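Protein in question kept in full:
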Amino acid sequence: MKITVLTLFKELFDMYLSQTILDRAVNNDLVEYDIVNIRDYSTNSYHQVDDTPFGGGAGMLLKPEPFFKYFFSLKEENRKPYVVFVTPQGNKLNQERIDKLKEKEDLVIISGRYEGLDQRVIDRYVDEEISIGDFVLTSGDLPALCLIDAITRQKDGVITKESYETDSFYNGLLGYPQYTKPSNLGRHKVPEVLLSGDHKRIREFRFKESVKKTIKNRPDLIAKKLEEDEDFRKMIEDLL
């Protein structure tokens, strides 16, 4: 899989992507990262990439020409990537979207800046607009990194399937509580069942705790799973 990011701050990505699991994905030829400084595609001698918006308003807007020039260069390479623009105006990122995006062989992520991106770039090249939440950041660089991290860690061979199958959201629930040594920290003890060695009881305990945490923190997820998953409804009935 090739993941390309169009950004104004290449150094931010170079530092993060050289760490641990993400770097392992590159070394094992599972993922290729290409971080492009979109300023390199500027069409004027000052390398300008922003300008004031038509109609007035505060702030600056990313100009369309550098992006058109970049995507035209891909056409010459016969590349047809799936293009994502990370923006607060996009569809909210969730596990279902990650599952779909990780299957793309060629993914381009546009990281916005300033007041956003000229709409003509979005209309012409963007396949999907994605938001990481209902809030605004100073740029799309952190959301782009979130997207890369979430996709990369689920590529086959990066981490074990067992590791991410117990993650929050993978099965529609939040993750269960985790404990490590020591087992006894004064009055704070690890639940006895986790020390029992009884794998069936441990699985049941973790499932119950996962359901309890989801009901408490994300009741919307429980409602959705009850509506969509008949087996889950039966398991909940058995618990009650």
About this structure: The mean pLDDT is 92.
